[in-house]
Amino acid sequence: MKGEEGGMEEENSVTINDLMKRMAEFARERDWDQFHSPRNLLLALVGEVGELSEIFQWKGEVPRGLPDWNKDEKEHLGEELSDVLLYLVRLSDICGVDLGKAALRKLELNARKYPVQQCKASSKKYTNYNNAKLQGESLNIGNENGNEDAITELP
Ligand SMILES: Nc1ccn([C@H]2C[C@H](O)[C@@H](COP(=O)(O)OP(=O)(O)OP(=O)(O)O)O2)c(=O)n1
């Protein structure tokens, strides 16, 4: 079924866990676990982000849904998006991070950092809001290490 934003919403859709298992199997079968270290996977991920960027390079802004792209171009895009996703999933797994859980938690943090009434129709960063500093402090967002680890209220 086509989603409102042009995305796909299918029953029995692929889960992050499915992809994680498939990548683990792919590596194990090839005796590639030895190469799938955090640093190697991160570099591979960045490389694939570069390949993805290349697809859009010099094209200028393109309309949502890419109506002018042909089948081959869209297929190529799907491949590069998949490479990024697969390396991201694998990197998370190898680092012992539950990516699905982490992403849900981050969505919750984002929602609290960007209250609808303050940011509706504005793309400004949260630091531009009047009480942004207070919000950051109460959430412990951006601690001295520049990360958000200190947030304790969320699972
Ligand atoms: N050591 C590796 C090498 C590849 N892959 C998997 C994950 C990616 O989905 C894909 C990447 O393969 P390539 O390095 O051949 O890159 P591309 O598919 O982008 O090919 P090309 O660089 O020719 O565009 O294969 C992997 O898991 N571990």
From TrEMBL:
Q: Which Gene3D superfamilies match?
A: MazG-like
So what does this thing catalyse? Answer: dCTP + H2O = dCMP + diphosphate + H(+)
Names of the cofactor(s):
Mg(2+)
* The name this protein goes by in its record: dCTP pyrophosphatase 1
* Subunit composition and interactions: Homotetramer.
Q: Where does this polypeptide localize?
A: Cytoplasm, Cytosol
Task: Please tell me one Gene Ontology term that the record gives under cellular component.
Answer: cytosol
Q: Which key words are in the record?
A: Cytoplasm, Hydrolase, Magnesium, Metal-binding
What InterPro entries does UniProt report for this protein, alphabetically?
Answer: DCTPP (IPR025984)
Main role?
Answer: Hydrolyzes deoxynucleoside triphosphates (dNTPs) to the corresponding nucleoside monophosphates. Has a strong preference for dCTP and its analogs including 5-iodo-dCTP and 5-methyl-dCTP for which it may even have a higher efficiency. May protect DNA or RNA against the incorporation of these genotoxic nucleotide analogs through their catabolism.
Source organism of this protein record:
Dendrobium nobile (Orchid)
